[in-house]
Design a protein that fits this description.
The chain is of the alpha/beta class and 208 residues long. It is built from 9 helices and 5 strands, in the order ααααβαβαββαααβ. It has a single domain, classed as Glutaredoxin (3-Layer(aba) Sandwich). Helix 5 crosses helix 9. The protein is globular, with a radius of gyration of 17 Å.
Length: 208
């Protein structure tokens, strides 16, 4: 399903999106404010011959979205070569899934980079691939820790600890996320148009 220029234009700007967040707003904003965009990432995008468009399919409830989306929005704020529109994945499920293999339907967030003619250059799915071991270690550490106090919901407590961990590691994880995002965009631009998009982010093995 192609993403038209008209459809893209109806997405939310980053500020509009952040203003309307209902779930996980504070950790999202904390990460957005904490991320430091490396100079080499800004320089890469600043030196692009033509601006690019970036469609972000996000879901407020997703932990990876809370880490990855504000990080990439900070990058976009740092350069005039990325025009961003954000879409609520839950309202655009069919469109979002059109950028995913069938066995990964429902994965979020999804970042779609397009050229001036609305042709896809690159996709970045979920978060940085090299962060997966650290995310798994975070989950294992929190699972080992003491559970909820009397009257508390264990899942709610664990979710809060994961969010706090993501915020505490925003700068470190942000550098990794932005490095991989820049790399997949560069790979996509280097490909002949007929071989695009380049795909980056997490990977799942296809089912047998």
């Amino acid at each position: 399903m192609p993403l038209s220029k008209a459809k893209f234009s109806r997405g939310m700007t980053p500020l509009q999106y952040m203003d309307q967040i209902k779930v996980n707003k504070q950790p999202f904003l904390d990460i957005y404010r904490s991320v430091e965009v490396p100079a080499e990432d800004v320089a890469y995008f600043d030196n692009l011959a033509q601006p690019l468009r970036l469609a972000v399919f996000n879901a407020e409830w997703c932990g990876d979205a809370v880490s990855t989306t504000p990080t990439i929005l900070r990058l976009a704020e740092s350069t005039n070569k990325l025009e961003v529109r954000v879409f609520d994945r839950d309202k655009e499920l069919r469109l979002t899934d059109s950028f995913l293999p069938d066995y990964r339907a429902g994965t979020v967030p999804v970042f779609v980079v397009l050229d001036g003619a609305m042709k896809e250059v690159a996709r970045f799915i979920e978060t940085a691939k090299t962060l997966v071991p650290q995310i798994d270690a975070m989950d294992e550490m929190i699972a080992r820790e003491a559970g909820a106090a009397p009257g508390e919901d264990a899942r709610t407590v664990a979710r809060g600890k994961r969010m706090a961990f993501r915020v505490a590691h925003a700068k470190e994880w942000g550098r990794v996320i932005l490095g991989e995002f820049r790399q997949v965009v560069a790979q996509g631009l280097a490909l002949p148009p007929g071989e695009r998009p380049a795909v980056g982010g997490t990977e799942w093995p296809p089912p047998d």
